């Protein structure tokens, strides 16, 4: 039974992580490791960089993010990600859908 739930949980988190990444980046552009740290601070939603970087690549390929390399004064160049207009629209639609689902689940809990 645990394996079935683990699979379900992984699938659920996949979609939620996309939304969380877009939400984090809607506040300010960040580089990959900083995104991982922000998400880790929210809870155990991600399993580190191996979870986040594929999501970043997918969101960028879909046109929801853009990236650019920046050279800090005191370190190595980092690839910073920021949300596009299409990403902002997608995030708004995702949040609305999340709220709709959350409302339905909460209404069932009251039965």
- In percent terms, what proportion of residues is strand? 5-15%
Number of helices: 4
What is the averaged pLDDT score? 90
Rg over C-alpha atoms, rounded to the nearest angstrom: 16 Å
Total strands: the figure is 3
Distance between the termini: 25 Å
Taken from the alpha-carbon principal axes, the silhouette is: globular
Oligomer: single chain
Q: Kindly name the structural category.
A: alpha+beta
Q: Could you name the ranges where pLDDT drops below 50 across 5 or more consecutive residues?
A: none
* Helix content range: 55-70%
Largest sheet: 3 strands, antiparallel
Q: How are the strands of the biggest sheet laid out side by side? A: 1-3-2
N-to-C series of helices and strands: HEHHEEH
Describe the structure.
This protein has 111 residues and is an alpha+beta fold. 68% of the residues lie in helices and 13% in strands. It is built from four helices and three strands; from the N terminus they run H-E-H-H-E-E-H. The chain has helices at 2-27, 32-42, 49-61, 85-109; strands at residues 30-31, 65-70, 78-83. The protein has a three-stranded antiparallel β-sheet. A hairpin with a 7-residue loop joins strand 2 and strand 3. Helix 2 (32-42) crosses helix 3. The mean pLDDT is 90.
């Amino acid at each position: 039974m645990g394996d079935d739930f683990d699979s379900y949980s992984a699938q659920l988190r996949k979609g939620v992580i996309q939304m969380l990444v877009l939400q984090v980046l809607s506040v300010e552009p960040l580089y990959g490791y900083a995104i991982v740290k922000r998400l880790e601070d929210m809870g155990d939603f991600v399993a580190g960089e191996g979870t986040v970087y594929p999501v970043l690549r997918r969101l960028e390929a879909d046109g929801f993010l853009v990236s650019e390399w920046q050279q800090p004064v005191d370190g190595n160049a980092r690839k910073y990600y920021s949300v596009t207009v299409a990403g902002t629209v997608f995030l708004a639609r995702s949040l609305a859908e999340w709220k709709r689902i959350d409302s339905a689940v909460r209404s069932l809990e009251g039965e």
